[in-house]
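Exercise 3.2. Students should predict the tertiary structure of the chain below and write it as structure tokens, then compare their answer with the key that follows.

Predict this chain's 3D structure.
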Amino acid sequence: MIEETIRQLEELFEPFRNAGRAQTASAYMRDQFSFIGMKTEIRRGAQKSWIDSLKTLEDRKLRWLIIRALWDKEERDYHYVAIDFLNSWPKKCYSEEDAVELEWMLNEKSWWDSVDAIASNYLGKWALMFPEKARETFEKWRHHDSFWLQRSCLIYQLKYKDQVDIDYLESLIRQMNVNKEFFIQKAIGWSLRQLSKYKPQEVVRILANNPIKGLALREASKYLD
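Answer key:
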């Protein structure tokens, strides 16, 4: 079934292959991935019927196998489909067991585009549904060698608005602030910038009590008076 399902998607995408646009997209991603060369709106239009056809799929394991099959594809476009498919899942498909698959997905063929799209969407919703499992998972990830998993810990609450666990976010920032990796510093600033829209005084406090500098500080301060 999986091979046939992937083949159906390939048939939908092939008419849109564009070598010039693919080369431009690859260059933008520092030549880490190859592309079919589809604009985002075209890809999403082409994939819609395919994703819709999987809405009634009740087998969670099969859903994850489809995602893994998409992730194994060479072109980045298929990875984007996997993410859109994941983010379309109804809550009944969520499970505590997703922790293993999410760690794999965030840590394989990783770049900001995939990590951010997963962490601030499915991962954030998953964490609200399974708070104990989520905390256990994030406590592992925050000490992981992969800065992509660490970044995920910093940004999974981006869409929580005024419901952010501020104490936990601050504890993550305090730990990771010494890491000068660009994507960590950017995530620190991003998480605080987003929080400042709802609780600016908390961000002011965090900035006053922690040695946040450079990129992270500039990002965090963007909406502060």
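Discussion points: The chain has a mean pLDDT of 97. The chain has two domains: 1-93, 131-225.
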